[in-house]
């Protein structure tokens, strides 16, 4: 029997919806429900589809053809700033119809447009029917990001089939029942059990099987053999207390990051009750990837010349690219890269210190910029400095010259390992950036009191610092002083806010994106920087100590009472831009190459274009908050 006109319309609606997220993953029954009840409506150019004055929305809308502009209502300057364009497959108003309140935006057809309309009561039924649609509406950008990661992983399906990935939960890596002793067990009994079971460490637990400590093979020589410890003594006397513990639900990536950050080779895995489930070693993680953490850590720790350090640097880049292929998220990836680069830098510093006889000098090596924020991508130059204590009676010129000579060697060796010398000379070998604590306070204080354009530029670089190695207390003292001083100077914060609004998200009024002459967008300047700059100001205003953009948004947002779902959406937007930057940087690309941070949106698939557009909208929301807070 031939299909009726009604059935043909429903089929056409379904075919269209299947081209877009989340409808392409929606359950067949739910998709059929939506296709049957959605009615296609025509809206002439310039006509209002929905405004706040219309009250509670009566329909959920999905753009089928044409363009619809959404703009926040209010003063003209704010309205112009907050306009955005929706195209085919995009929906509105998700928040208003879910909360059953009037929309805060006005939606106007900017060209003749066809829009599906679903009655509000059917929208609510659809959310109940479809878990996919429910997640999409409540966690919009997070849902899209998850689908993008799945799509990326499918590109590397063959590799994923050949090996477990770094997203594997630790509970799945633990294959054997846990082996442990109590703290009063003798060393002899523990060592005999290690030999019998052929294991490289012994875990010590309490009577409830909750970890108390660990003794590894590498501990035996310095703690047992050389001191001549009586093997009848309890293992609790020589074990490492407070061992590194992770949950069985944590991923192999989380374990690798913990090992890379703290330089440990064994992690204790516990269940939800805190009881020992097993041990994961570097060897276990090594089997998950072609270039392993153990390889890289060992090569860094054992490196005693520049060639070995250069090989380790190349391995870090290859491992990061493997993790991108496995769908690891941007926050984890940039933390992983930063942790391994930290280890590499610290080894370079250790070798240089020995040659320049700096032992006994109280100092801290500072990382600025993206490295200071734990946000290094595969393309970063050097931004570093030194903070030190001048001992009483020491010759200040001689001491500083020794530090500068050591720093020059470190900077040159970092450059040889693929981190170019900073074109702006923001490096520890610059005498202006090798300063005592009081001198750093004076430098920061001058910028805060006289916030001219150069001072504001300096603040965007130097305020994002952390101690990479050395005495962390020096960095903490400077941070506490800096936060108090900046918060007390409202004019400085207002000028920083004005500076942060100089670059707007590259969203077009008619076209999806505003691109440069070569058809690309600079994801660093016009993407990540928008989040970084606002997060820095919010952190100074609320005295958040972290230098990480994500932690600044989380902690400052909580202090300011921003809704948790709004904070999550901002962070998801930032993460996606970071992920696109990482994906555009290849192994054979030189660090800081001209095209490293650029993307042509026309080359992205439809899903990634949509997420990028949403990420820029989140940046726009963040900037709008700043604009309103400081009346700019």
Give the overall shape: globular
The strand count comes to 21
Instruction: Report the portion of residues in β strands.
Output: 5-15%
What is the count of DSSP helices, taking H or I runs of 4+ residues? 26
SS content category: alpha+beta
Largest sheet composition: 4 strands, antiparallel
Mean pLDDT, as a whole number? 85
User: Which spans of ≥5 residues are poorly predicted at pLDDT below 50?
Assistant: 75-81, 156-163, 587-591
Gyration radius from CA atoms, angstroms: 28 Å
Distance between the termini: 65 Å
Q: Report helical residue fraction.
A: 40-55%
Q: Strand order, biggest sheet?
A: 1-8-3-6
Organism: Aromatoleum toluvorans
Domain CBS: 174-231, 239-296
Protein name: CBS domain-containing protein
Keywords: CBS domain
Features:
632 residues, alpha+beta, 4-stranded antiparallel sheet, 26 helices, 21 strands, 51% helix, cNMP-bd_dom, DUF294_put_nucleoTrafse_sb-bd
Describe this structure in words.
This is CBS domain-containing protein. Pfam families: CBS, cNMP_binding, DUF294, DUF294_C. It comes from Aromatoleum toluvorans. There is one protein chain. The protein has 632 residues and is an alpha+beta fold. The protein has 26 helices and 21 strands. Helix 12 links the parallel strand 13 and strand 14. The longest helix has 27 residues. It is globular. About 3% of the residues have low confidence.
